[in-house]
Amino acid sequence: MNLKSITRTEKLAYAFLAAIFGLGIYYSNTNLTYFDEVYTKEDGLVEYGTAIMLLCSSLLLFGRFFKFFKHKSISWRIGVFFMALIFFFGTGEEISWGQRIFNIESSQYFIEHNAQGETNLHNMVVDGKKVNKIIFSQLLTIILVLYLLITPILYKKWTWLQKLITMFAVPIVKWHHTAVFLIVTALLVFIPSDRKWELHELAFGVLFFLIFLSPLNKEIYETN
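Predicted structure:
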């Protein structure tokens, strides 16, 4: 492991996460009310921070999509555009598509079928079960484990996987991306609040921006 391979931007981002989680652990253990109702509250700095990072990833990908559009294959365009769209969708969901920012009332359908009465999909309730728990928690956890832990190992071993990943411009994580993800996940143990997941989402947003900015297979964002 070569620490010199970590860029200045990555170091600053990791220092930011260390400060955010450090304060989170401190506040949640000394003033739980402040942690829940101020530090990680709805429409607070942590939640908006997550939305901003997701948006940055989306804009970065859209920028590359248009920049290299004429130089890349159809599969590359599909991969980059799809990922940019996913992160744009994530941004919208994080802030309920600006509903609270612009003080827009939810339709009757969302009032009746959304756990928080908001205009978003991740808080929808279907047959008594929250979509957030099924898709955005359980499924996303499986995807993250496969992507951050398993894929980097298989990428180095299987040539066919390397070609497929290059074809659709899927960025591969560096070792320190995975290490930081594991560390912040482990730190959640020290936060006695259900709103600790807001910090985890922020870490997710920061890490994926770093991954898209400078992946292990950075050649996918270069012209031939």
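Summary: Residues 131-157 form the longest helix (27 residues).
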